[in-house]
Each structure stands twice: as structure tokens, then as C-alpha cells.
Specification:
Elements (H helix, E strand, L loop, with lengths): L2 H15 L4 H6 L7 E2 L5 E5 L4 H6 L6 H12 L8 E4 L13 H18 L3 E5 L1 H7 L5 H4 L4 E3 L2 E6 L2 H6 L1 H12 L1 H7 L2
Parallel strand pairs: 2-3, 2-4, 4-6
Antiparallel strand pairs: 1-3, 5-6
Length: about 190
């Protein structure tokens, strides 16, 4: 086990020890912390686990996750090459949107994850994860456009689940995704 993985495990244990969002925790099956390569150049951040993620304890394993895997494949990446997590680490009841106080409760732990991994590029999926970092931006106006904040590079993309329900967004998301290798190569 690498030193980074050990640190990530410590952050996960802190969430449990600190009883973050006890109401949310009580309605979920388990904590869905994140998975992938602790040395990844890319960290992908969604909003919160869904039903399948809650059951399996892994982020993005449902239909949206399959679409994400397909898109990763088109740019020569697999899950083992990246790190995937969510802002909120417990499934909200009935897949409702995470509440502002739930997002803010988990944000310090997400920041800690990013400090350990130190990715070259952070990809936010959907408006909730984008707005945790850049609250004034609107996903429909900035998707696929590299943003810089706090010495970090962030690429806002539509959430794969939205693309599954809206065919027009699907092609947009695929095209935005295709830019990732070039964006990565241009980040020094």
C-alpha cells in the first residue's frame, strides 16, 4: 500500500469517526469514499452516490458509470488510471440533490483527498461539483472550458447521467471528453 493510499484511508476513517452528516449516513447503506489510482493525473468528481453506488460502495458503477467508462476508453484511459469520487460521500434519500449543508460538511474531506492525490486536472461532473469550487459559474456556459482556481486546473463537464436522459448532451459530453488528453499535455 502506498503512502498516498494510507493517507486516503485515514481521511475515510476521519469521516466515519467524525460522524459527518449523521442523518444522511443513517439513510445510506455505506460510505462511498472514492476509488482509483492515488497517483492519478486526473481526479473526477461527481455529486453524490446513487443507489447502485450505495450498494457496492464504489462511485460511478451504475448506468452513468458505464457511460463514463466508455468515454474514458475513447481517450485511452481506464478506471485504474484515474481517481473517482463525489462531493457527498453518502447517497441522499431517493437520489435527491445533495443539500448545501451536506456539500459543505464533506468539502474539507474532498479538499484533503485532492491534497493527497495532487492531480494535474480535476474534472467536475455536473453543476453541483462545479459549484463547490466555482460557485458563480453555470455549467451550460463553461462546460469543456478549462478553469484555473487556487493553482489548480478544473475542467467542468456535464454529468454523464444528464447525457443519458438528454441525447443532445451526450454528443457534447463526448466531444468535451475528447479534449482531455490535449488539455493534460498542455498543463505544466
Amino acid at each position: 500500500m502506498t503512502q498516498k493510499q494510507t493517507k486516503l484511508d485515514e481521511i475515510e476513517n476521519k469521516i466515519l469517526a467524525n460522524n459527518v452528516t449523521p442523518e444522511l449516513a443513517s439513510s445510506a447503506t455505506q460510505l462511498v469514499f472514492g476509488s482509483g489510482n492515488p497517483d492519478a493525473q486526473i481526479v473526477i468528481i461527481g455529486e453524490a452516490p446513487g443507489k447502485k453506488e450505495d450498494l457496492l460502495g464504489q462511485p460511478f458503477v451504475g448506468a452513468a458509470g458505464k457511460f463514463l467508462d466508455e468515454m474514458l476508453g475513447t481517450i485511452g484511459f481506464e478506471r485504474k488510471d484515474i481517481y473517482i469520487t463525489n462531493i457527498v460521500k453518502y447517497r441522499p434519500p431517493n437520489n435527491r440533490d445533495p443539500l448545501p449543508e451536506e456539500k459543505s460538511a464533506f468539502l474539507p474531506y474532498l479538499e484533503s483527498q485532492l491534497e493527497v492525490i495532487r492531480p494535474k486536472l480535476i474534472i467536475t461532473l455536473g453543476r453541483h461539483s462545479l459549484n463547490c469550487f466555482l460557485p458563480d459559474l453555470i455549467i451550460s456556459k463553461v462546460h469543456g472550458q478549462l478553469q484555473k482556481f487556487n493553482e489548480r486546473f478544473l475542467l467542468p463537464l456535464y454529468h454523464p447521467a444528464a447525457a443519458l436522459y438528454n441525447g443532445g448532451l451526450r454528443q457534447t459530453l463526448i466531444e468535451d471528453f475528447r479534449q482531455i488528453p490535449l488539455i493534460l499535455s498542455n498543463i505544466k
